[in-house]
């Protein structure tokens, strides 16, 4: 297949998908209607032209002598029809047809009758898997390889029968009730360009919805979920995925998806209230749904959904989802999602996910989804977010996000692929590309620090401040330190050796390191260790604040010197030695006098000191 043919195929597929989406919104479509003294039939024809659809109805429903006048009004089709028929009729959308039906069911009876026949194409070839659907939802049928169908119907009223097959134009026929009837149907191929030639206004109004997932892709994904295939019959899935019907019902009750008030057509109906004894399957929920085991929604859920085991939604969720085990949404989620084990949203989230084990949102298979508001994830185990950014992640073990604009807390590991604009706190490891805030963990890694600093035992900044420093001071003959951080803030690890040993961790700040002269301030806390075997190994804590006045000798070497302030808190539990040998207070390393005094007397000591070192 050459490139032109491929592009043409993709374009036609997109047009077909878009037409399905638009077909479900005819009743909500705004129309500017203005007629003066026109018959009902003419008014209906004008509406068809303005809306880009076809009316289907029993001729007995309309009064041909009635004349209609409507001044210019911009209303939805449903509002216009209510005004025309004074609420006598109900409306249903099937494909490109708007079906008109009487609200008066007095003509119904217990009379049973059968409608059967064969569906073929224009060449007489039988059409397998064509759908025959009675518009009042009494019955539906999928044709066999010979194109044959058989419907069991009830009542004395005329029935509208919809015949549809993928790739062919839908056909609606009204048949008179009878004991047994034979009706053979020929379906004509559907051609995309024919609609644009005859209905240019309709062609201009074909716009896909702003969705993370389009209609056809969503249904394919919904069918691929094993739990859905387990609970919903293949016939119900096939009918709902291949027959475009828009119908709203106030309440439905199901025992299982194929056994309930909506039977095999449950995937075509939007319900206000849905009660599922075990499990249910609907097109949409606009209100409240509860199921002891599972709730499965083909398109959107707006309201509250509660299940004992699983909630599965094919498109967007707006509201609250609560499940004992798992919630799965193949669109976006705006609201609160609660699960005992797993929450999964294929799109992005605006709101909060809470689960006992795993939260997942915005899978990598989707295109980039814009940030839409505050969002957060809280779980006992793992949080995964692949959207643009997230505000809150609290996980017992692991958090992963593209960007964080707020707080990320984990018992073990935090991973951010982009920017952390806030705080990362973990028990073991934090990682981010750009840091604009604080990292607190045993090990912290950042590619770049723009504004902030890491606090941990090991801090690694790939493109930041990296310096080794060798120094001496009044208390320790030799010190070695490694400093790493951002442009102005850094952390460091230091070890010192003298009469005593110490291991220190600290943070510091510096002025512009590119200048010849600069200033830095280091604040550290360290553990002090005895080298004398007469004493316990641990001697106490040493805290130090030192000011460094630096001069850059060349590109790689900087000299630093300055005063310090020291505070030693000895270990009060160590054994005291009766014979005390104090270091001389007047030597160059006079600080040992105060260390000796602190260790021997077990009393806090304060003193001024100094430091001199080389940084490279």
Structure description:
This protein has four domains: 26-102, Phage tail protein beta-alpha-beta fold (3-Layer(bab) Sandwich); 112-186, Carboxypeptidase-like, regulatory domain (Immunoglobulin-like, Sandwich); 222-461, no CATH class; 465-615, Porin. The chain starts with a helix and ends with a strand. By secondary structure, the protein is mainly β. This is Carboxypeptidase-like regulatory domain-containing protein. It comes from Labilibaculum euxinus. It holds the Pfam family CarbopepD_reg_2.
Residue-averaged pLDDT? 81
Biggest sheet descriptor = 17 strands, mixed
Instruction: Assess the beta-strand content as a share of residues.
Output: over 45%
- What is the domain tally? 4
Q: Helix fraction? A: 10-25%
Query: What structural class is derived from the secondary structure elements?
Result: mainly beta
Low-confidence stretches: 1-24, 192-219, 364-371
Q: What's the N-to-C terminus distance?
A: 63 Å
**What form results from the Cα inertia axes?**
elongated
Number of helices, counting only DSSP H or I runs of 4 residues or more: 9
* Spatial extent as radius of gyration: 38 Å
User: Would you count the extended β strands for me?
Assistant: 47
Features:
9 helices, 17-stranded mixed β-sheet, Phage tail protein beta-alpha-beta fold, mainly beta, 4 domains, disordered N terminus, 616 residues, 47 strands, 50% strand, Immunoglobulin-like
Reconstruct the topology from this structure.
Blueprint: H1 3-23, E1 30-39, H2 40-51, E2 54-56, E3 67-76, H3 77-85, E4 89-94, E5 97-102, E6 112-120, E7 131-134, E8 140-142, E9 148-154, E10 159-164, E11 171-175, E12 180-182, E13 185-186, H4 192-198, H5 200-204, H6 215-224, H7 226-231, H8 234-242, E14 245-256, E15 259-260, E16 269-276, E17 279-282, E18 284-291, E19 294-297, E20 301-307, E21 310-313, E22 317-323, E23 326-329, E24 333-339, E25 342-345, E26 349-355, E27 358-361, E28 375-379, E29 382-385, E30 390-395, E31 398-401, E32 404-410, E33 413-420, E34 423-426, E35 429-435, E36 438-440, E37 443-449, E38 453-455, E39 458-461, E40 465-473, E41 478-485, E42 489-497, E43 500-510, E44 517-530, E45 538-552, E46 558-570, H9 591-601, E47 605-615
Parallel strand pairs: 2-5, 6-12, 6-13, 14-16, 16-18, 17-19, 18-20, 19-21, 20-22, 21-23, 22-24, 23-25, 24-26, 25-27, 26-28, 27-29, 28-30, 29-31, 30-32, 31-33, 32-34, 33-35, 34-36, 35-37, 36-38, 37-39
Antiparallel strand pairs: 1-3, 4-5, 4-14, 6-9, 7-8, 7-10, 10-11, 14-15, 40-41, 40-47, 41-42, 42-43, 43-44, 44-45, 45-46, 46-47
Organism: Labilibaculum euxinus
Protein name: Carboxypeptidase-like regulatory domain-containing protein
InterPro entries: CarboxyPept-like_regulatory
